[in-house]
Amino acid sequence: MSTATKAVIRTGRKFEQVLQGARQVFMTDGYEGASVDDIAKAAGVSKATLYSYFPDKRLLFMEVARSECDRQAYETAEPTDFNAPPRDILRLLGRKTLEIITSEFSQRIFRICVGESERFPELGREFYQTGPLEGRRRLSEYLRRSCARGELQIEDFDLAADQFIELCRVDIFPRVILGVDTEFSQAEIDRVVDGAVDMFMARYGT
Amino acid sequence: MSTATKAVIRTGRKFEQVLQGARQVFMTDGYEGASVDDIAKAAGVSKATLYSYFPDKRLLFMEVARSECDRQAYETAEPTDFNAPPRDILRLLGRKTLEIITSEFSQRIFRICVGESERFPELGREFYQTGPLEGRRRLSEYLRRSCARGELQIEDFDLAADQFIELCRVDIFPRVILGVDTEFSQAEIDRVVDGAVDMFMARYGT
DNA sequence: ATGAAACTGAACCGATCAGTTTATAGTCGC
DNA sequence: GCGACTATAAACTGATCGGTTCAGTTTCAT
Question: Residues annotated as DNA-binding region (chains A, B) (predicted)?
Answer without folding.
Answer: 35-54
